[in-house]
Amino acid sequence: MSKDPRTPGGLRDIVKSRLLDDVLGASGKKWPGWMVLVVDQPALRVISSVIGMYDLMERRVTLVEDLTKKRAPFRDMAVIYLLSPTEDSVKRMIEDWTQSETRKEALYGNGVFMYFMNKLPDGLLNRIKGCKELLKRTKALGEVNIDFLAKESRVFHLDMRNALRYLVPHRGQPSRCEMVICDKLVSLCITLNEYPHIRFKASSPLCTSLSNVFHRKMTEYIGGNESWWYHGDANHTARGRSTLLLLDREDDCLTPLMHDFTYQAMVYDLLPIDDDRITYKSETIGTSSDQGEKQTMDKDVLLNENDQLWVELRGKHIADVIQTLSNRIREMVNSSTSNVLKTKGGNTKALSLSQMANALKALPEYREVMDKLSQHMHLSHRCMEIFNKKGLLDLSELEQTLATGKTEEGRVPKLNELVSLVEEELQNTQDSLVRLRLLAILIVSQRGIRAADRDRLLAAAKLSPPELRVINNLEKMGCPIIQQEEQGNRLTSMFKQQKAAQSGRKESESEYSSSRYVCNLKIIMEEMSENKLSLEEYPSVLPMPIEGSSSGTAMSARTRGPAGSARKSGGASRSRWAKSSADSQPRNKTTFAGGRQIVFVAGGLCYSEMRAMHEVMASGGREFILGSTRFINPKDFVMDLNSLN
């Protein structure tokens, strides 16, 4: 029915196959001519994330139209509707087939194909049946279960930008937002052919509620669709059933605030990017003569999995990215084919790297490759310009010390020292967002500040009223602002475990001292990969199979490794910008042990956590699929905190 997501394309290939084969291809078999595709905004975002206009033209789709806008009639063409199953979208579709004062005829021909991205409620189905003009032209009506955005091969989000404000604080009963989340997760699991074991953070009321709602909805689907199969059932035993782990953004407010210096995280943190699109000034070189004039133009770039260089570089440290790009440009310049420069009378030894790259860009056979290399060189250098302008190297060392509890040399500073360092940095930092993030990192990492320090830190931070609201709203995320004498709540336990994990971890994945911090999600995924995730902290809705369980008293991966410095032992102090010996990109692994591990974070997923998933998969035998309500950069997280009521 669908491609196995363990093939190289993963989730994106599945969604693309659903659209091209199950929607467009199936419609084309029943209609010999051209077709119009009509979509609402959620469906348009799904389509545009995986296929292009060329793919549509190949399936005889001549036009893509917005359901919400006024459209011209095409009465000789069939129409394919791809819609979210909402009251508004169904109402607008029915209006296309209902006579009005301004339109006496239907907009399209006698072929109507209706597809919904998720389950169509019975009430809306009955409304469709009540429109005779629509019903008599209907050739197909189906649910394709692609109500999520597959942004990477194994990373997705539910396109729910404002979810956090409806999830925090949890109000006891499942909210409308939780229902939508679970409907979309069921859609994902149907597409993956997975009926997962459900695990959740026991101390999180939100995760507990989501687990129960998802279990009910998934069970209802299976009961009403006897022909649907899943991995691990009696007839599909090549691998076992998957596991779905439900987590809460409240469990880790630290990671979204940290500066991360891998390429993808820096681009989304420091540069003006809209979803996957970024615009920058590009210099073009004339080709009519060696003295072609430079022209500057705005160039739009899509940073997605169609760009293989982006996929290769996005998880690497920015220093490695620049080094890799520089080496490849030099390799092209020094290749035998670059001898064409010499035939023009040029002296390659006298040219700088930039001049040689520009010369190569003027040659058609090099232009595409050099454009891509130059594009990423520009973006990476722009990141470094902002990095240097804001003094983020020194700031990052303070952030790492706060987050890990240790300095670069392995010394454990006292709270008084940390407060003084933060106060000094706040006074010297011009960027208000950077000041806000640093103060929030101090509060979250230390589980609150002392009442005596509050006023001096706020004075140094110079926060505006909206920024002060962000700090105060940390309490709604379970992070106390003022330290308590005794903190017996659930967050105390969580943070103690997280801090112990970070201070006792080998951290062999990176030798950059500005990247010593390890996010909590990576530790959880490593424990899942090794079947050591505590069933006491993360119980299951139904009993787990014996081979997939771990006792609550089993040795935790969070406590493994020697105590001491978070840096590798080696004597002399290492540069904070040292070279990494580990590759953060996953190896080309096409087979995995056991069932899939699906991890979902309600409230937002940051780019450093996506990188962590790739690192875990690269070092282990488990396949992970990671998702959230949305992807967030630090600014997004701050805005989400500000929106909490």
Explain the overall architecture:
With 645 residues, the protein is an alpha/beta fold. The protein is built from 24 helices and 16 strands. The chain has a six-stranded mixed sheet with strand order 6-7-15-13-9-8, sandwiched between helices. A hairpin with an 8-residue loop joins strand 11 (277-285) and strand 12. Helix 8 packs across helix 9, helix 20 (465-473) crosses helix 24 and helix 22 packs parallel to helix 23 (607-619). The longest helix is centred in the middle third of the chain and has 26 residues, at 364-389. The radius of gyration is 27 Å and the shape is globular. The chain starts with 9 loop residues before the first helix and ends with a helix. Mean pLDDT is 85; it is low at 1-8, 487-508, 548-575 and 579-589.
Tell me the β content.
5-15%
Largest sheet composition: 6 strands, mixed
- Count of β-strands: 16
Rg: 27 Å
Helix content percent band: 40-55%
Describe the global form.
globular
Q: CA-to-CA gap between the ends?
A: 44 Å
| SS class | alpha/beta
**Distinct helical segment count:** 24
Low-confidence stretches: 1-8, 487-508, 548-575, 579-589
Sheet with the most strands: spatial strand order: 6-7-15-13-9-8
Mean pLDDT: 85
Characteristic terms for this protein:
single chain; 645 residues; alpha/beta; 6-stranded mixed β-sheet; 5-stranded parallel β-sheet; 24 helices; 16 strands; 12% strand; globular; disordered N terminus
